[in-house]
Amino acid sequence: MSKSINSTEEQLLFGHPKGLFYLFFAELWERFSFYGMRALLTLYMVEKIFKAIAERDTATAVVYASYGSLVYASTVIGGQISDKILGMRASIFLGGILMALGHFVLAVENDIAFFLALALIVVGNGFFKPNISTFVGSLYKEGDVRKDSGFTIFYMGINIGGMVAPFLCGLLAIKYGYHYGFGLAGIGMLAGLFAFWRGIKTNVFGDKGMPPSKEVYEKKILGIPQKTLIPIIAFLCAPGIAWLLASWKANYVSGIFKFIGVAVLVYLAYIIYNLKTSEARKKLIMAVLITFFMTLFWGFHELSGSVITLFASRNVDLDGIMTASQTNGLNSMFIIILAIPISLLWGFLSKNKMNPRTPYKFGLGLLLAGASFYILSISGASADENGMVPFYYLFAMYLIISIGELFMSPVGLSKITDLSPKNIVAFMMGVWFLSSAFAFQIVGFISEQLAIENVEGQIINPLDTLTIYTDGFHLIALYAIGAGSIVLLFSPLMKKLLGNVH
């Protein structure tokens, strides 16, 4: 066993463990599938699934928010099951298979299949997403200075997939129909699974990612080994989740989600109470605070897949540039362009002992999010006689919010693994992604407030929607700037909770 570990440590590529780059491509293709589908989802619901009802924007907002919340809330359960039973490898394979199946079912032109497909993606993401990110952290020893840059490289893989997918899936959707775009997303998920499988076959991971206990992994419940029972239960959960998503008028997901949030907070309080040292408690409290700050940021950022996509479709002059669904790739494009320069900036500042601590980066990130929405809020002043605003406002908005994202997300992702006790790292990574789940509730609330009512066959007048959107963006800007200012004000106090973690 030690020989395997040593040989794995010696396999370096560009100064990082070689396994990082297999995980890079696995995540790249998984995110290709996820963001390719997401780029089409809101427009598909507005134009196809709910086209015959006056409240189609509201229905779309509720389903989009419920789907997004469940996608990320499921990571808490998936992370816990991985920690206790399956291990990271088996969890990633199970999640990938479920997600691929969901994307292919989404390619079926049927309303029932639509909700079932979303449900399969929800369950699959719960197993896949927290574990592949935790896997990256496991490649580095505690205190390894390369970890931050390793996560930034990994983050670039996410955004290469996130940039290319909306353009390609959006192109197929325009030329041949939405379901061809969804089908291409499914192929992307299979490519991600293949990349991960190749990493295992070439032994670049050594003994990492195996089940924590073979005895527990093989333990039989009702005569079925847990390694088999868990995938069966995962598949059986999908129809129930599909029903919840389809019941958008009742919005049961909102109530369930509140219960999940309370349960996670109670469990975290229990963990914090039982930690043996005050230093460990402080670090875990800081991990929870970081997660809360990300909730606020993602609540504004994730509007890109809903309200901002509809704004692009209805009020942005995109003629000859790209389609509304393809604008979803702008954020990832900027992340790719800026990820390495900002990573090098952190390195330069560290050498000169000027690198700001994590709370300051988070405060600045929230300020940048506010600035990005302020730009959209003033775009109405440049609208033409038809209520269409120039594309460069949307372009500038994505540029600024992408810089804010790089100040927060890859840095926070790395810090969660540093601040969390080792026996609950995968669970805490699940809690980290739960920030996005809560954020989608914010997205749903905002999207409902900015919903446009109309009936089938009625053409939406851009002059009627422009002020609704720009006024909404102005309020978002105020909230984001206010939140960022508060974080910066209390950053000196939060530095003490970080201890020896930068």
Structural write-up:
This protein has 502 residues and is mostly helical. Helix content is 77%, strand content 2%. The protein contains 16 helices and four strands. The chain has helices spanning 2-10, 19-49, 56-106, 111-138, 147-176, 178-201, 214-218, 226-246, 252-274, 278-301, 307-315, 329-351, 358-377, 391-419, 425-449, 462-498, and strands spanning 12-13, 16-17, 220-221, 224-225. The chain is globular and about 65 Å long. The model is unreliable at 1-10 (pLDDT under 50).
Descriptors:
16 helices, 77% helix, globular, two-stranded antiparallel sheet, disordered N terminus, 502 residues, 4 strands
Q: Please, what is the average pLDDT?
A: 87
Largest sheet: 2 strands, antiparallel
Determine the oligomeric state from the structure. single chain
Quickly count the helices: 16
Q: Give me the side-by-side strand order of the main sheet.
A: 1-2
Note the beta-strand portion: under 5%
β-strand number: 4
pLDDT below 50 for ≥5 consecutive residues: which ranges?
Answer: 1-10
Distance between the termini: 33 Å
Order of helices and strands: HEEHHHHHHEEHHHHHHHHH
Helix content: over 70%
Structural class: mainly alpha
Overall 3D form: globular
What would you report as the Rg, rounded to the nearest angstrom?
22 Å
Tell me briefly what this model is.
By secondary structure, this protein is mostly helical. 77% of the residues lie in helices and 2% in strands.
Q: What are the SSEs and their pairings?
A:
Layout: H1 2-10, E1 12-13, E2 16-17, H2 19-49, H3 56-106, H4 111-138, H5 147-176, H6 178-201, H7 214-218, E3 220-221, E4 224-225, H8 226-246, H9 252-274, H10 278-301, H11 307-315, H12 329-351, H13 358-377, H14 391-419, H15 425-449, H16 462-498
